[in-house]
Amino acid sequence: MGNIVFEHPLVFLLLLLFVVCERFCKQKRQQLIMPNLPMLKKVAKKQNIFINLLKILMVLLLITAIASPIKEDEVVVQNDKGYEISLLLDASGSMEQYNKFEIVKGIVQDFLKKREHDKLGLTIFADFAYVAIPLTYDKKSISELLEKIDVGIAGKQRTALYEALFMSSKLFKKSKAKHKIAILLTDGVDNAGTIPLDVAVKTAKKYGIKVYVIGVGSDRDVDRNVLANIANETGGKFYMASTAERIQEIYDEIDKLEKSEIKANKFIKKHYFYQYPLGGAIILLLLYIFMRRRRYAV
């Protein structure tokens, strides 16, 4: 959400013209010499102060309305030739160890910021897999949801890795994007048995998805051969990481390998607020006219 700005800020130069006219463009009037003139001047002076204040506020509001206060929102519209990226995160019980899940969430948040013009989705898996957010340009929604997700949201006992890959691949069923990518991070092996490995891999290949696989931990924790096979079969790449720094390096490398060169289409959505100062100026104008007439009627 943008801040309030003025569409025509140079209009405020009219204030200088108003000040100059107030000083040098005074209307000449005939003066009448009357008894008790000092008392009348005192009363008139008070009225003049109020009337002049009304005039100044009225002009200020009118010029503000002409300057057109607006709030600008930048809207990004990406065509179907860009990147579409599915993020798959292991949220099983083992990801609680050494605060791994929180570390990964922070790294993914950083990755989201770098993919400003790409379409992303989020899939979480543990005892079962579910699509938390389908492919979208709304990075803010993904970021906010990531902050709320914690280990155990999909159970803690199993790792439905193949099911996650299968469900995530289905997100690309109607995709027309030239580049389809999945980044799968896990610290375990599939022990849910809900979807066979070959079915998950074939589905990813069917929709032309390149899968980057990140194994967290050591060879005792993950099945290196299976994860490497998923990456190789889909044209992706397999990584092993045992530290937070290495995980960050991997996401940075993937970001560079799959850097989108397509610029998003942007347009500015403007919200106009000129009606508020204009309405205020009209009210003050009516009050100004009333006070002027009342003054000369006395």
Key terms for this structure?
alpha/beta, Rossmann fold, 9 helices, 9 strands, 45% helix
What can you see in these coordinates?
The chain is α/β, with parallel strands linked by helices. The protein has two domains: 95 residues, no CATH class; 179 residues, Rossmann fold. Helix content is 45%, strand content 21%. The longest helix is centred in the first third of the chain and has 31 residues.
- Show unreliable segments: none
Shape descriptor: elongated
DSSP strand content: 15-25%
Biggest sheet record: 6 strands, mixed
Structural class: alpha/beta
Average residue-wise pLDDT = 86
H/E topology pattern:
EHHEEHEEHHEHEHEHEH
- Second CATH tier, the architecture of the largest domain: 3-Layer(aba) Sandwich
Total separate domains: 2
**Amino- and carboxy-terminal Cα gap:** 53 Å
- Report the count of strand segments: 9
Q: Tally the helices: what do you get?
A: 9
CATH class of the largest domain: Alpha Beta
Percent in helix = 40-55%
Rg over CA atoms: 33 Å
Query: Superfamily at the CATH H level of the largest domain?
Result: von Willebrand factor, type A domain
Strand order of the largest sheet: 5-4-3-6-7-8
The CATH topology annotation of the largest domain reads as: Rossmann fold
